[in-house]
């Protein structure tokens, strides 16, 4: 246990996966009631930094990473399972650190992308298709700073959902694949596949998305990849993370707890042990047929076993 865990471990939130899924449920309810309301909760750096809508720094985790459907419900159950497994394996504190680090890096990525667009407005051209680039280029070269900000407002209104919990969820699965690479899951409920191959596939897809995506996508995916990389290089040599070590440790703790309940002496009459009354003395009776032990209260008053 590190110094930070000793100091801040008591503040760790247990069952964090349940809370995250609960946030999604709230988001889906809002989506069913009024879909446009979620636009006021996204991680829109323009609205945060220019308009002062600071609540977006926190409320974006409520915005669901995907539309509601039967597949989404199945995936939520799946992420609940692996999330709770990871919390039991890493411990509540380390699991909290991993999740909140991913959230922090995503928020930081949104702010950095805003700074890049503000100081180097030319990168915004990569967001639009060829038919709009000439018009946008002219606007950037001839317009004022206010025109640039209005353009950024339009872009962020459309692309703020890129900074979502989707890649947070992917990073949870990637961490699970790092810790339990040999575990098998049923792909499409039929095909058994080792988790490590699915993890590699996700990593390839994320890498491809990073290289072909626009500046916003690069920052969003890059934040998740950085969190995964930190986790991998920090914990890959920790043997306590291996499943066999976790099982062995749990068995050791169970055996130690059982050993604490064992006693050396027990009266054959009243059943008292040295734990019940440390002042009692125990003796074996030489006249009884067998190994019968009695406390001092019953050593001379019991009936001999023949």
Characterization of this structure:
This protein is mainly alpha-helical and 306 residues long. 59% of the residues lie in helices and 5% in strands. It is built from 12 helices and 4 strands; from the N terminus they run αααααααααββαααββ. It has helices at 3-8, 16-33, 45-49, 56-59, 70-90, 92-119, 130-142, 145-159, 166-179, 195-212, 215-235, 243-260; strands at 184-187, 191-194, 282-284, 293-295. The strands form 2 sheets. It has a two-stranded antiparallel sheet. A two-stranded antiparallel ribbon has the order 3-4. A hairpin with a 3-residue loop joins strand 1 (184-187) and strand 2. Helix 2 runs antiparallel to helix 5, helix 6 (92-119) packs antiparallel against helix 11 (215-235) and helix 9 (166-179) runs parallel beside helix 11. The radius of gyration is 30 Å and the shape is elongated. The two termini are 58 Å apart. The mean pLDDT is 81.
How is this structure best summarized?
The chain is mostly helical and 306 residues long.
The end-to-end span amounts to 58 Å
Low-confidence stretches: none
Structural class: mainly alpha
Shape: elongated
**Major β-sheet, in short?**
2 strands, antiparallel
Order of helices and strands: HHHHHHHHHEEHHHEE
Q: Estimate what percentage of residues fall within beta strands.
A: under 5%
Got a strand count?
Answer: 4
Share of helix, binned: 55-70%
Indicate the radius of gyration in whole angstroms.
Answer: 30 Å
How many helical elements? 12
Mean pLDDT score: 81
In spatial order, strands of the major sheet run: 1-2
